[in-house]
Amino acid sequence: MFMHEQLTIKTLQAIIKENDCHPDNKHGYFLKLIEEIGELSEAIRKNGRMHESGGIKGTMEEELYDVLDYTLALANVYGIDLEQCHYLKDEINRKKYGA
Question: Which pLDDT tens digit goes with each residue over 37-57?
Fold first, then answer.
């Protein structure tokens, strides 16, 4: 797998694509993303942190990762390279807001 590579957006997106890519389930990935955002909201409301609970389950850390996972999975099924999008959007933002 990718265990020894630096974890970049591109690498993480490839790992997720290797393990979970069902292009016919675009709507399902979107619904899961919304669900995970709701769970993140709950974890933030409870201020649930991994260093306080002793594990990742039910924490902001877990839910933020889940949001990232489904965002990347959704990008995969649409064929979107989010690392490339970062650079393009960063350029727009620098022009708009300055360095």
Answer: 999 999 999 999 999 989 999
